[in-house]
Amino acid sequence: MSLVEVEGLRAAYGQVRVLEGIDFSIDKGRRVAMLGPNGAGKTTVLRALSGMVRTRGRVEFDGRSLLGKATADIARRGVAHVPEGRGTFPALSVEDNLRLGAYVRGDRGAVREDIRRCYGWFPRLEERRGLQAGSLSGGEQQMLAVARALMLRPRLLMLDEPSLGLAPIVTRELFRVLGEICDEQGMTVLLVEQNANLALDFADHAYILESGRIVLEGEADRIKGDDEVRRSYMGY
Amino acid sequence: MERFIQVLVDGIATGSIYAAVALALVLIFRSTGIVNFAQGEMAMFSTFVAWGLYEAGLPIGLAVLTTLALSFVAGVVIERVLIRHFEGGEVLTLVIVTLGLFILLNGLAGWIWGFGNRGFPSLFSDETVELGGVTLSVESLGIVAVLLGVVGLLFLLFQRTKVGLAMRAAALNPDASALVGVRVGSMLMLGWGLAAALGALAGVLVAPRLFLDVNLMGAVLIYAFAAAALGGFDSAIGAVVGGWVIGVSENLAGTYVDFIGADLKILVPLAIIFVVLLVRPSGLFGTREVARV
Question: Which of A52, A140, B46, B115 is most buried by a 10 A CB count?
Answer without folding.
Answer: B46
